[in-house]
């Protein structure tokens, strides 16, 4: 039998070229996986912080502004009620309000004749009423709420959210004075 031709073995340089390609495949695969993960995290972060999270924070800020002013109004109205038999005396009530709304401090003041705002389907009016007004640096969180007080009560002062808020009522012969006051934060620095 004639000698069959022997299969040719690849030459060493050709063999080395394929080995180098085989070694690069896992590295390229892992690099692509890492790039996809980084792209996914970047896209998710952009979606959340570009739309979803700010919208939620704004909604929470509006809800907190509403509840804060409702709590303040409720506390002022409850403290202002003076028994008919009271001739002289005083009392004090703490008002628990949040220190900030959407990261900013705010003020609450009594306005004796604030203009009532009309709803979206109502025509504007010039009616005024006594109100507590929440003044926030971001006008979107400003609020006003009517407050009902006895006619013999006069109101002074305002609250700054950076301090503890109290309501003081002093009854004298000629009527009662209700004061919205701040006290230094308990445990704060005394300068």
Query: Largest sheet, described in full?
Result: 7 strands, mixed
**pLDDT below 50 for ≥5 consecutive residues: which ranges?**
none
Radius of gyration: 35 Å
SS-derived structural category: alpha+beta
What general form does the structure show?
Answer: rod-shaped
- Give the strand line-up of the largest sheet: 1-6-7-5-2-3-4
How far the N terminus sits from the C terminus, by CA atoms, comes to 112 Å
Our count of helices gives: 1
Mean pLDDT: 80
Strand content: 25-35%
One letter per element, helices H and strands E, the order comes to HEEEEEEE
Number of strands: 7
* Helical residues, percent: 25-40%
Question: How would you characterize this protein structure?
Answer:
It contains one helix and seven strands. It is α+β, with helices and mostly antiparallel strands and 191 residues long. It is rod-shaped and about 135 Å long. The protein starts with 11 loop residues before the first helix and ends in an 8-residue tail after the last strand. The mean pLDDT is 80.
Task: Give a summary of the structure in a few sentences.
36% of the residues lie in helices and 28% in strands.
Characteristics:
191 residues; alpha+beta; seven-stranded mixed beta sheet; 1 helix; 28% strand; rod-shaped
Task: Spell out the blueprint of helices and strands.
Blueprint: H1 12-80, E1 89-95, E2 107-115, E3 128-135, E4 143-146, E5 153-160, E6 164-172, E7 175-183
Parallel strand pairs: 5-7
Antiparallel strand pairs: 1-6, 2-3, 2-5, 3-4, 6-7
